[in-house]
Design goal:
Blueprint: E1 16-20, H1 27-41, E2 47-50, H2 58-66, E3 71-76, H3 78-88, E4 94-99, H4 105-110, H5 117-126, E5 128-141, E6 146-151, E7 154-157, H6 159-166, H7 169-175, H8 180-188, E8 194-200, E9 206-210, E10 212-216, E11 238-243, H9 247-262, E12 282-287, E13 289-302, E14 305-326, H10 328-333
Parallel strand pairs: 1-2, 1-3, 3-4
Antiparallel strand pairs: 5-6, 5-14, 7-10, 7-13, 8-9, 8-13, 10-11, 11-12, 13-14
Length: 335
Amino acid sequence: MMNSTPDDKPAPSRSAAVVYNPIKVDIDAIKAAVTVLENETGWKTTTFHATSKEDPGAGATRDALDAGADVVIVAGGDGTVRAVAEAIHDSDAALALMPAGTGNLFARNLGIPLDDLEGAVRTAFTGVDRAVDIGLIDIRDENNALSKHAFVVMAGLGLDAKMIANTDDDLKKRIGWLAYVSAIVKALADSSELHVKYRLDSQRARSGRAHTVIVGNCGSLTANVLLLPDAAPDDGFFDVAVMRPQGVIGWAQILGKVLWENGVLRRIRGGHFLTTKDVRALRYVKAKQLTIRLSTPEEIELDGDEFGKAIAFKSRIKAGGLTVRMPQAANSSQH
């Protein structure tokens, strides 16, 4: 849902903050663009807060909120966006995106332009607010310690978590998302299965096996791959994908569903009538809450970042729990 105005405060009372990853952005260019919009709109002086290896964004965001920011501009990749969203979702502030990462999946799924610095700053100061969902997750690690987090794109066990764990960070800096290719090959070579006990919403607990479990708030991946065709960031539900391939045929079924049916047929007029039913190798389900307990610790990822090994997690959707600043043009296209 879109609000027609940024907020109810008069311009001189409004202020923005920029939380930025100093490794990925040109902060001088950002400051220059912000100054232009400050002068144009009459907002207060913007504050700037750098992330670090020790603080990927949550602490910087709390500093921004303590400074009175009405809008927090996130200049970084999906990991920075996730950390900021985790800190901001309980506040009255809006989040504005300035994509500067490898995947920029949250921005892609929301239809926000990726390479437009001035446009991103203008959206932060003059855009409209959109309420979107945010995933909240409690992770119990292999040492039985509990930690609480949030995610805006996807959480995953199995293939995607192993892929991220196998990705060379230096290679990713040099060639971007193509660095994931070799990591995918390594992950596919791992034939081990997840043995899980799970509960969807208030249904009874069940047991099962899977190669990969993905809990998604958004549906599209890097290279515009549509993994979760019915996912929407504001429908109040997770879309859960369970992959259970058996050999080459199983993987062929998954690739056919994801690349051909989701990637081609569903994107052409009337194409959804040509899609097939779920196959055993890939099942989809919608839910508001998912609890999983694993027989052995497994790698888990949130929005493309490693979060160690988990023995269990409980994830729930917070419908409309995050306010994102959108371009004015996006508001017009909603009507």
